[in-house]
Design a protein that fits this description.
alpha/beta; Aspartate Aminotransferase, domain 2; 2 domains; eight-stranded mixed beta sheet; four-stranded antiparallel beta sheet; 15 strands; binds pyridoxal-5'-phosphate
Length: 367
């Protein structure tokens, strides 16, 4: 059997181990250290934002954004329905009420349904968590205009979209907050980790305070409120600094892999890749496609398993999850249809053209 081909395995750039050795030599294993500062600095510079906070996960970053935005019990938080659970579980941590919005032809949140929701709700929403799915930019101009007009805090879930740019501006920098993930399957990884970025210094500093157990500045432990243990370790930040050195080449490679898939599968009638909006450059974290009518993604995933190749159906929308059976939703069938017909293809940066061609051949066979 061939060596397993994963959807998106970690890929080190080369300098990470040396940086981790520096951490060991300094014994600043924890709690923080220079690499955490350097990782935050690099992220500020790369995205063009003014404030960044390295954390233990992307989920933690979304949680802190909600808490700092003042989202509490009974508040309404709008969110993309077509996303991963980590994007929206923090709404529950705050005892707030998720309201799910469907996607449109962009596969990302529909500004039209967003407007419909705001008009229909009997209480103004506090925040919107907007996912840039699979590394492709959502309709930021329209969505941002709505949030500004309605005074809704915008949290961009850019967990999958580091390296994606909308009008030459990094995703994550349009909203009040932006969130990145360095989970093992992301375009760059620290093994596990996240980053919260934002324009408002006070908000990010408040998040920093909450991320280390809300310790008041006294020589003893003093607390006026509760916080979390959400900070990133110096060891993982060292990996992150090494990964940032290769981010741009990783984006280029994933886009190249996507173009190879386009070349190899583009002639199949009814097969549609996730689109890229005009004036945007996605990172093509994963190559994803809607399959022709009649194809069953679950069968196709099974077919690939026989070749030891990992593929996956598209995200199951949040409004379809039993966990959210009672949540309000504004949906029109778009994400349900993508879930029923779509697939994620192996997209790891180490793939060569021949690997993509082999995957394409197996997909044809399965169809
Ligand atoms: C869209 C999206 N949001 C949030 C997360 C959560 O990030 P993490 O796994 O770092 O907590 C992920 C990925 O894991 C994600 O894909």
């Amino acid at each position: 059997m061939r060596q397993r081909l994963f959807l998106s395995p970690p890929e080190m750039g080369g300098n990470e181990l040396g940086y981790v050795e520096e951490v060991f030599a300094s014994n600043y294993i924890a709690p923080l250290g220079d690499f955490v500062n350097q990782f935050e600095h690099t992220m500020r510079h790369y995205t063009g934002t003014s404030h960044a906070l390295a954390l233990s996960s992307g989920t933690a970053a979304i949680h802190l954004a909600l808490r700092v935005a003042g989202v509490g019990a009974g508040d309404i938080v709008l969110a993309s329905s077509f996303t991963f659970i980590g994007s929206v579980a923090p709404i529950l941590y705050q005892n707030a009420l998720p309201v799910f919005i469907d996607c449109d032809e962009s596969w990302n949140l529909s500004p039209t349904l967003l407007k419909t929701a705001i008009m229909a709700l009997d209480k103004p929403p506090k925040a919107l968590i907007l996912t840039h799915l699979y590394g492709q930019c959502a309709k930021l101009d329209e969505i941002l205009a709505i949030c500004n007009e309605e005074h809704i805090v915008l949290i961009e879930d850019a967990a999958e979209s580091l390296g994606a740019f909308y009008n030459d501006q990094s995703t994550g920098t349009f909203g009040d907050f932006g969130v990145f993930s360095f989970n093992g399957n992301k375009i760059i990884t620290t093994g596990g980790g996240g980053m919260l970025i934002g324009k408002h210094e006070e908000a990010i500093e408040h998040a920093r305070f909450l991320s280390t157990q809300a310790r008041e500045p006294f020589p003893y432990y003093a607390h006026n409120t509760y916080g979390y243990n959400y900070r990133m370790s110096n060891v993982l930040a060292a990996i992150g600094v090494g990964q940032m050195e290769v981010l741009e080449s990783r984006v280029q490679k994933r886009r190249e892999i996507f173009s190879w898939y386009q070349e190899a599968l583009g002639d199949i009638e009814g097969l549609e890749f996730m689109p890229e909006l005009p004036n945007t450059k996605g990172n093509r974290w994963l190559t994803t496609a809607r399959l022709p009518q009649g194809a069953n993604p679950l069968e196709i995933v099974k077919h690939f398993e026989a070749y030891n190749i990992e593929t996956r159906p598209l995200w199951k929308p949040m409004h379809m999850q039993p966990l959210f059976a009672n949540a309000t939703r504004f949906v029109d069938g778009s994400s349900e249809s993508l879930f029923a017909h779509g697939i994620c293809l192996p997209s790891g940066g180490a793939m060569e053209r021949k690997d993509v061609q082999a995957v394409a051949q197996i997909l044809r066979e399965a169809l």
